[in-house]
Structure formats: structure tokens, C-alpha cells
Amino acid sequence: MRIRRVYRSVSTFVSGVAGAMVKAVATSVVLGVVLVSVMRYMGVPVPSAHELLGGLTRLARLS
Fold first, then answer.
1. Lowest-confidence range among 21-25, 39-43, 58-62?
2. How far apart are CA 46 and CA 28, in angstroms?
């Protein structure tokens, strides 16, 4: 019976962490879309996703 209690508490913890991660990712995506939309509306040049990934690739090669 003790193993079931431990399993249940670990399962609850993992579910909570997974839920928090999903909320964090969803919030980041929504804020990113809103920020990019506002920047484009204001006329600020925003790089495309392809350009951003290219820059990250170059940075990874330097390390």
C-alpha cells in the first residue's frame, strides 16, 4: 500500500509540472504572436522565423 501512495503522489506532482509547462508554452506563444503583430503594425522590421533559426544555428556553431 505504501508504494501506491508514493506512486500517487509522484503522479500528482508530474501532472502538475506538465500542466504548468503547457500553460507556460501557450502563454509564451500567445505573447510572442501579439508582440510581433504590434511591432509589424508599428512598422518595426521583424525578422522571419527562417532568419531567426539561421542566426541560432550560427550561434550554436560558434560555441
1. 58-62
2. 17
